[in-house]
Amino acid sequence: MGGYSARYHAASLAAVFLALAIGILIGIGFGDDVVSGTTEQLEESLQGDVQEARQQADDLESELGREREFGEAVYPALVGDELSGERVAVIALGGLPGGVAKDVDDALEPAGASITQVAVVRVPPDVGALAGDLEGTRHARARRSPEAIEALGRSVGRQLVLGGGVIRRVRAQLLSRFSGRLAGTDDVVIVRDAPDELDERDAEATARLEDGILEGIRSTRLPAVGAEQTDTEESSVELFDSHDIPSVDNLDLIAGRVAMVSVLLGADGNFGIKDTADELLPDLLRPPAGAGGPVGAGRP
Prior knowledge:
By secondary structure, this protein is an alpha/beta fold. The protein has helices at 2-79, 98-108, 127-133, 146-162, 165-174, 200-219, 237-242, 254-264; strands at 87-93, 114-121, 175-180, 187-192, 224-227, 247-248, 270-271. It has 2 domains: 1-79; 83-285, Rossmann fold (3-Layer(aba) Sandwich), CATH 3.40.50. Strands 3-2-1-4-5-6-7 form a 7-stranded mixed β-sheet, sandwiched between helices.
């Protein structure tokens, strides 16, 4: 009896292991089929999603193209001759990228304005050389005093717009590019190309000079606007705002061009699409009843 029980127990264990082995083999085969089928379905689904996303992107690009075309077509009607005959100075701090220069021109030309001066201020400034050019004047102290650098900047800012003896003496040293004339300006467009990382001394001198120039421009009381593109890496809106100079942060868009013309007509604020913007367009875009133009009622 004991032998039978032992043989029965051994046979039972063998049957169990055999069943387990068969189950594992069946499971592996079945699992491979399931995984393979699931993978194929997933690939097909992803391919479908990618194709759909591409189609949506193409549709959106086509729609944006039509919107841009429409905007370009209606822009002259929105701003036509609002700045007729106005002479505009473009003053750039650090540099004037070609794309920005084109955007400024594209905004002004349909409005009837023309760029009569382009001045690009070199940064960081060579303070010693500037002070040397101004030897015998109060600005010669700029080599020793940050406050004197800012005072020099104020004189430069005013005279870039109105003309004067200081800017004539330092023009070759201060400006990396200049064309036009230093007088007879009606409006000012300010562009800033933020400098690369500077050492502490150059950074302070640059900041002081830029602050002074912006204060000097503002002190002329001529219409002025700070302008940049939507993809400008380091925005200067807060700097412009700190000197009470209105700004436009999307000059590469039709809305930005309309806003810039509106600012030169008297609108105040920071306009565009970035977090620093107050709103997309000035209220001046919506003229009071009886106003003649679509952008605004003209200069006050």
